Amino acid sequence: MSQTDNIFSQPLDKVDSFSFDQQVVQVFPDMIKRSVPGYENIINSIGMITQRCAVDNSNLYDLGCSLGAATLSMRRGLDEKTGCKIISVDNSSAMVESCQQHIKAYKSDIPVTVLQDDICNIKIENASVVVLNFTLQFLTPEKRLSLLTNIYQGLLPGGVLVLSEKFIFNDATNNQLLVDLHLDFKRSHGYSELEISQKRSSLDNVLISDTVEQHYARLQQAGFKHNDLWYQYFNFGSILSIK
């Protein structure tokens, strides 16, 4: 059972850099629901994308799988497919342990392998669907192109990448409005000004956002020629890239 996210509810003498440790794992579902606009819509849609785009006898990857929400959605979308398997990867031991428990709790004949590893170490092979759901933003920028190139090269023709991210925008006025709307979203879900401020400090230099245009340019450099924003809610959204 998920606990309420109150990690930053009390004044901290020192705000440490954000990490996906056991403390975060315990509150993660509540944290995501109250922090990421549209998260449930994206998760549900990943299942629909999988249903349409996955092909028989292929691999599907959830890179940065956290507790496995996208993995489970992908697996539901594979009901009519045969010979598919899902590889889910996260570098947090606490996340991997909880993800494995969540996967086991939902019975299915579709195999899922959950690995604790750096997603940059994973060779993508025979893939029809790859998901990076709010993951790329936690990689240092110099590692992002290499990862996307690896994904592109490992995708089958017509294979898809779902890339969900927190964006920044070139127009400063519009960017500030979208930032403010996101903060209003968090306030409306019960976060205090102290929690918002300390969480922001914790994420400084840990979560590094790109513009949509930067994402498109990097995806094209990796080889993807078909890239479009299919979902956006304030400054959060998701891009669909097709090989």
Distance between the termini: 39 Å
What general outline do the C-alpha atoms trace?
globular
* Number of strand segments: 8
Q: DSSP helix count?
A: 8
Rg, nearest Å: 18 Å
The whole-number mean of residue pLDDT values reads 96
Low-confidence stretches: none
Q: Structural class of the helix and strand makeup? A: alpha/beta
Helix content: 40-55%
**Helix and strand sequence:** HHEHEHEEHEHHEHEE
Tell me the major beta sheet. Answer: 8 strands, mixed
Strand content: 15-25%
Q: What can you see in these coordinates?
A:
The structure is a single chain. With 243 residues, the chain is of the alpha/beta class. It has eight helices and eight strands. It has helices at 22-35, 39-53, 69-76, 93-105, 141-154, 172-188, 193-203, 212-222, and strands at residues 59-63, 85-90, 112-116, 127-133, 155-168, 210-211, 226-233, 236-242. Strands 1, 2, 3, 4, 5, 6, 7 and 8 form an eight-stranded mixed beta sheet that branches. Helix 5 packs across helix 8 (212-222). The radius of gyration is 18 Å and the shape is globular. InterPro entries: CmoA (IPR005271), Methyltransf_25 (IPR041698), SAM-dependent_MTases_sf (IPR029063). It catalyses: prephenate + S-adenosyl-L-methionine = carboxy-S-adenosyl-L-methionine + 3-phenylpyruvate + H2O. Catalyzes the conversion of S-adenosyl-L-methionine (SAM) to carboxy-S-adenosyl-L-methionine (Cx-SAM). Its EC number is 2.1.3.-.
